[in-house]
Amino acid sequence: MSEDSDIQTTPRGFQCTLCNVHLPNTASLDQHVKGKKHRTLSTVRATRKTQEEHSVFVSGINPEVSQTDVAEYFQQFGAVTDVIIDKDKGVYAIVQFTETDSIQAALSCVEHKLKGLNLRVKPREKKEFKLIPKKKNDPKNLQQVLDCLKPDLCQLVSVNAQMQHIVERFQLGENEKKARSLLVQLMQEVFVEFFPDSKILPFGSSVNTFGIHSCDLDLFLDLENTKVFQAHAKSTTEQAGEGMSDDGRSEDSILSDIDLSTATPADVLDLVAMILKRCVPSVNKVQVVSSARLPVVKFHHRELNLQGDITINNRLAVRNTRFLQLCSGVDERLRPLVYTIRYWAKQKQLAGNPSGAGPLLNNYALTLLIIFFLQNCEPPVLPTVDQLKDLACEEEECEIEGWNCTFPSQPIAIPPSTNTQDLCTLLAGFFSFYAKFDFASSVISLREGRALPITDFLSQNKEDDGLQEDQPTKAHQQRLKLGPVNLLDPFELSHNVAGNLNERCRHSFQRECQEAEKYCRSLQYQQKSAKGKSWGLMRLFTPHGEVQPSKTEQLTISIPFKSASLPEQLCNELHTAGDSFRLLWFQRVCSAVEGVLKSILKCNLAPSKDAAFGEDSAVAAEEMETTEASVKSSLSDSFDGAETQNETSPVSAVAVGAKRPLSSGSDTSVSPQSKKPRMARRGKPEFPPWICVQKHIVWAGRRKVKRELIKDADLRPEGSCVALESQVTARIIEKEPELKDPLEFSVQPQMLGGTESTRAVLKLEPTSDQTGVFHDFFHFLEAFLPKMVETLLEKEEASA
Ligand code: UTP
């Protein structure tokens, strides 16, 4: 099939039948056909077609017949390039020849006999190539699983009982644990043959007390002793002459192929993969993944239908698994909470989705979030990692890769918590804790049991002064990958366990927590329904997809505080601003917003008629005095080339004259400096709105104009994309007629943070929209504004 025949014209544009996508116009069609997806699928289809045309289908073999047997037999009809045997039952094979003529030769032979078996040879079926979309966690399937749980859950008497039921229903059974342990034992026996003195250690969900049926088997192959063995054997061999090592093991063992002290992880894993394939019965689908943060060998065990991973550089994971086991033993409420929250997160597609629908929280990260919440309960349910360290005795001291991993080996060493809250209350508490958590401005530390201020991690020039023992050192802090959720590993303090999450995941997690919090306040959560209706956990577990954004949410544009993408100089300034960093950042964002509206989109900005400030001005005056000095310099910085910061700016009004308090570190719901969450908060700071007038449809056809400008050297503007975007607007204004009635709308900036994730929110509202274009403009701004604000913040730095 040629590329052209993949494209069909539809009333709404085009449809690519290969990739199953709709394309509104020829420009997007052009881009799509040149794009990666379309090109990859075309290549895959062509390869499949060639394979089909060069191969035959062979049935009648059995598992004793090997790939080599089949290849050798079919060589008589022509050169064989590949043989694929079905892995599960080994009853059929696909034989691929170099030449298509060989197919005819094989098909015309009347009888095929191999190892006493009668083989049947058929032409390959010609299947139409179809894109099978990745299976996502279909809400329908999730609902079906939940429906099976419903009768049992609904008849229980309390949420506490429901949570215990979830543990019983999902936990690994004794037989499953035994089967896993036997497999580990078998692998140990096999590996020690090839890698003397090696150890294979399970970690993760199989052994951390939170495992569920069919969870994967994570293994760490510890080769430290093997390295010692090899070094010793080498020196002895050198002394004694070639041939035999001191314990009589022959030199032609697998170890003679590799020097463990210098080999790369990928080399070692290749060997591990080979051993798994050849020597461990029932193991298939062996694959080395060297690109992962920690390279692994993945495998599948047919009989146990078990997925497994083997890593060789993961001693810390074995230790953090011991930590999770310890926490489980310290307080028996942890397991039901973890099982319940993991199930909730799966239903809401927030975590643990192996089909890979986007970056999700991994189970380890989610468990750490639960432990952190329990450290922050009043009184705490679990101790901090630092407290655990102090409770350990000398023999329990442990350091791995330079990180302190000391904690007691037995739960008995830890005094029981005085917190008596039941499971139902703690579960509701978890949702409420994270519903209000300021992820953007915090770094979660289980080590200290508190949220550390993000500003400590922003500056490259931070001094180590004042850092306590075990706090991340300067070098470690610099390496921490900041993101929308910053969750420090309890031991490897330079690792952000949630570093894979994007802003969307953070938002979904928090929105679901807010929904759950609201539900947990209702009677349906706490009381069994007398009419047999869903209650308690059942309604909490309803799959994702039912939360509708509220109407007000639809008309606001959120600009999150993204610590990871801030320019360096601003990072340093925010670091110096400390608790007042939000004010400083908000200043910059508002300047940039004003710049986008005025200079790039050529809106007329008029002063607001009701620019009045709310209550609290006395307190505000005091607070502003302290913050004013630190932000003074930023106030005088005007938006580069955009004639902003005039007297109509709400920001200048607020910052210079109005003395309205701004939420800062002192207004946090979970104070970075104190362990206790502060729930009380004053009204959110609001500012007088900008009144904007737009006379042209500057949002329509921008891409086309941009392409024209880029192509035309005479028109192409010098400099950044800001200049280009301004020119795009100018061109549209030049060419397109004015709106009959100009669109007038207000933009109300607001800063949030402390008791929720730090961000600037712009509330937009039409004040005059005779031509009904406001919603189109709004949808355009939703994507355009945050992107341009980010660019302007960077530009400001570049031009500084
Ligand atoms: P998982 O996130 O897979 O957790 O990490 P799990 O409890 O095993 O859940 P399943 O497998 O999804 O059911 C597995 C282990 O890997 C280590 C931890 O020891 C964790 O228990 N790990 C994971 C880390 O050390 N750091 C990470 O960032 C992630």
UniProtKB/TrEMBL annotation:
UniProt xrefs under SMART domains: RRM
Residue span of region Disordered: 630-686
EC number: 2.7.7.52
A GO term, aspect molecular function: metal ion binding
Reaction(s) the record says it catalyses: RNA(n) + UTP = RNA(n)-3'-uridine ribonucleotide + diphosphate
A GO cellular component entry from the record: nuclear speck
Compositionally biased residues, Polar residues: 632-651, 663-674
Keyword Magnesium tagged: yes
Protein's GO biological process: RNA 3'-end processing
Keywords: ATP-binding, Magnesium, Metal-binding, Nucleotide-binding, Nucleotidyltransferase, RNA-binding, Transferase
SUPFAM superfamilies linked to this entry: Nucleotidyltransferase, PAP/OAS1 substrate-binding domain, RNA-binding domain, RBD
Key word Cell membrane present: no
InterPro entries assigned: MTPAP-like_central (IPR054708), NT_sf (IPR043519), Nucleotide-bd_a/b_plait_sf (IPR012677), PAP_assoc (IPR002058), RBD_domain_sf (IPR035979), RRM_dom (IPR000504), Znf_C2H2_type (IPR013087)
Domain RRM: 54-126
Cofactor: Mg(2+); Mn(2+)
Protein name listed in UniProt: Speckle targeted PIP5K1A-regulated poly(A) polymerase
Organism name: Amphilophus citrinellus (Midas cichlid)
